[in-house]
Amino acid sequence: LESETNSRIQALQARIRPHFLFNCMNTIASLTRNQPQVAEATVQDLADLFRASLSDSQLRIPLRAELDLSRKYLQIEQLRLGERLTVIWEMDGVPQDALIPSLTVQPLVENAVYHGIEPLPEGGTIRISGRMDKNLILITIDNPILPNNARPHTQSNGMALQNIQQRLEAYYGKHGRLNVDRTDKRPDRYTVQISFPYLRSEV
After folding, report:
1. Torsion of CA 110, 195, 86, 144, to 10 degrees
2. pLDDT tens digits for 41-100?
3. What angle (nearest 5°) sits at the alpha carbon of residue 118, between those of residues 117 and 122?
4. In which element (H, E) is residue 131 found?
């Protein structure tokens, strides 16, 4: 059973491919002449993201490391989107030493940019918040979206969410969940929440 679960996790993690690669390379190319130091830092951030995507599929990392990956991703997108992208972090309510599967939060943040901020001419704000519910950690990503009849990339978004849901289940069983809040009362907002048990990292 353990071998089968590990194989499943490896197969699921292998499907994670950042959407923003080509945009990122274009951003780096545009910075090379005028802001070479920023271009170099962006290359390092990109390398860290891909190092994580190629890491051991059984790896669970401290939450602080997963959030750091998310911040590096957002730094790259901030260079491209400028004032169109605003991010609010509200993560003081969760322990930073909690173990989480690598590349769980970052793809959700990436979806919020790709499916939410990028299609909107005026951009918008992504809110990333966390809290504890007994022994469960809950992390919520909320972002603006286009109206229901004008959402691009919905199929790829569903595949990404299914991927993360399956990975959480593979690690935590019924205690690992992903929920989407998308109702007619909030047609211009999209909220996704993950929950998983608090297991403390020794690092």
Report:
1. 80
2. 988 888 887 777 766 555 789 999 999 999 999 999 998 899 999 999 999 999 999 999
3. 65
4. strand 124-133
Q: What is the mean pLDDT of residues 90-112?
A: 92
Other CB atoms within 10 Å distance of the CB of residue 93: 11
Which tokens hold the place of 83? 């004032």
In 15-149, alpha helices (H): 21-32, 36-53, 63-81, 105-111
The helix (H) or strand (E) run that includes residue 15 is none
Check: CB of residue 115 under 8 Å from CB of residue 145.
Answer: yes
Q: Looking at beta carbons, which pairs linking 110-113 to residues 24 or more positions away fall under 8 Å?
A: 110/18, 110/19, 110/20, 110/73, 111/141, 111/157, 111/160, 111/161, 111/192, 112/141, 112/142, 112/143, 112/190, 113/20, 113/74, 113/77, 113/81, 113/85, 113/143
The identity of residue 16, as a single letter, is I
Global confidence as pTM: 0.81
pLDDT-derived band at 25 (thresholds 50, 70, 90) equals confident
- Which residue carries 């935590």 as its tokens? 172
